[in-house]
Amino acid sequence: MDRKNELLRKTFGWTSFREGQEELVDAVLSGRDVFGVMPTGGGKSLCYQLPALLLPGVTLVVSPLISLMKDQVMALRSLGVPAAYINSSQSSEEARRVYAGMRAGEYKLLYIAPERLTLEGFTEAARSLTVPLIAVDEAHCISQWGQDFRPSYLKIPDFISRLDRRPTLAAFTATATPEVRGDVERLLGLRSPLHVVTGFDRPNLRFDVLKPHKKYDALLGLLRTRRDRTGIVYCSTRREVERVCEALRLDGYAATRYHAGLEDEERRRNQEDFLYDRSTVMVATNAFGMGIDKSNVSFVIHYNMPKSLEAYYQEAGRAGRDGSPADCVLLYSPGDIYTARMLIESSAENSELTPEERARVTERDYERLERMTEYCHTTGCYRGYILDYFGQAHGERCGNCGNCDGSFTELDITREAQMVLSCVLRVHDKLGYYVGQGLIGRVLRGGRDKRIFALDLDGLSTYGIMRGTAAGRLRDIFDALLEAGYLRKDGDHGTILPTPAAREVLFHGKAVAMRVKSGPEAVRERTSSRSGRTARVPEPEYTEPGDADNRLLEALKLLRLQIAREEGVPLYVVFFNATLTEMVRRKPRNMGEFLEVPGVGTVKAGRYGELFMDEIKKCL
């Protein structure tokens, strides 16, 4: 066995590489730049951690978040790999110890925040070291067109230019469109890199979009069927996080919160409560989660629609990192669009960009929001929509999303379509310009707001002709007309315009159909235990009583929890869920067999092997 495969087995506990990993590792070891695009949970970190153990000196890892660095360093140390990090969370004494360790050659990997790269003290320290490799994690952050643009990432090439010798560069990301990938390669200055794109698909994740009348009651219904599971509830704003977290606590859930407005100590404490399963539900803004390697997150619920598909897929991808089945549910309402637009505008105002750059970024953000909104309304495969966005081929149906595993009925909406299209044209004839969907909808439903009266739209023949149509139903009709190509949206002004095809509906009686979910009810009426209000929520799941293997798995999870609490580390630092599942399947009886379990390296086998094998014997 060569040294590379020996380290893979003995240190990381794996007998083989995943797709794309070996190519990237070999390229890095040969001194070639690489660019890896791999889904969350696809094993990106191994592609630079393994070479770091084989290369001389210390590998630098540029990482955007403090929590990401801390967790990865903790996990590496649990494997016996000498690693450290430098960021703003450290005291001056802690930082001095790390610098001393750097000079003494104690580390093989050093994680560094991009903001600290160009500090004179760090640059000088780095110039005195052998740095064979710089790995840039979350590399999409360097692109203004990426969903997480961080100006500090633009400092990376400047730092590299100050080193006496240019190291090999390795860039990695999970979510990047082809345009963003081109931006990353250009801005980082990658030289003829090996490109490995293993794909964006996460087959173990089930995607769905719900449009409940009352979001909180729908959330309760989703959580009620998942009381024995751990998950994340994402909200768009700090205020929403506070409100939802407090409500869940009152309803008996072990919920905690995370957003940028909390004190550092509370954020740290709440994050650890979630990582150690003291709190099973994390309610958070998008400030939480990047790099959180918690293996047993079995659901991610978005209480509000994110601003982009990149953000949604990255956040949803924090579920099922170990390959276990997991749910990704988005609770959509039209108000989410307004909130997202406010966040986009606020972000632009507070950015360090020039006015011209700010205008370009804002325009692109609105384009991404439009695609995110389309995702929420598609009646096609949700997974297919996401893969289309990232440029990956796929089958027509995935069989594992809310649209593919549901059934649809086609409703004839020709009459309603004629009313809508007629109203669009009549408003245009009256005003001389097209208007947005919201105003058209209010005219159709006989709205009595000041703008309608000021524009004299209440005198139109189409005013109030759909007064009895629910607002939600009317939105669905608009979506169907847009999807079928009878209406289109003007991206610059948000107005809706009829297409030439609309004439066939208006003047030649062409039939228009709308697909709606049907078949067995996915939701039912229920009453909230606290408010007494009714809401539409999923039916409760039914599970068979656990057999011997299920009881063994629960016993091993309990043992892992006890060890994690004693050592003050997250559960995954002990073992991933997938590793425990393999222990149940293989039932190792001696150390040789225990070392054959995927995810068990020599350090962890020596530390935990006897404890877990004793537990297995007890349960047999």
Summed up, the helix count is 25
Quickly name the level 1 CATH class of the largest domain: Alpha Beta
Q: Architecture of the largest domain in CATH? A: 3-Layer(aba) Sandwich
- The portion of residues forming beta strands comes to 5-15%
Instruction: Identify the strand order in the major beta sheet.
Output: 3-4-2-5-6-1-7
The fold-level CATH name of the largest domain is Rossmann fold
Helix coverage percent of residues? Answer: 40-55%
Structural class: alpha/beta
Radius of gyration: 27 Å
Question: Which spans of ≥5 residues are poorly predicted at pLDDT below 50?
Answer: 519-546
Give the full name of the CATH homologous superfamily of the largest domain.
P-loop containing nucleotide triphosphate hydrolases
Give the helices and strands, then pairings.
Layout (H helix, E strand, L loop, with lengths): L2 H8 L10 H9 L4 E4 L8 H9 L4 E4 L3 H13 L4 E4 L5 H12 L5 E4 L7 H8 L5 E4 L19 H7 L5 E6 L4 H11 L5 E4 L7 E6 L4 H10 L5 E5 L3 H13 L4 E4 L5 H12 L5 E4 L12 E6 L6 H8 L9 E6 L3 H15 L5 H23 L4 H8 L17 E6 L1 H18 L5 H8 L5 H5 L16 H14 L2 E3 L6 E3 L3 H7 L4 E6 L4 E5 L6 E5 L9 H20 L3 H4 L2 H10 L4 H4 L7 H18 L1
Parallel strand pairs: 1-6, 1-7, 2-4, 2-5, 3-4, 5-6, 8-13, 9-11, 9-12, 10-11, 12-13
Antiparallel strand pairs: 14-17, 15-16, 18-19
Helix pairs in contact: 1-3, 2-3, 13-14, 16-17, 21-23, 21-25
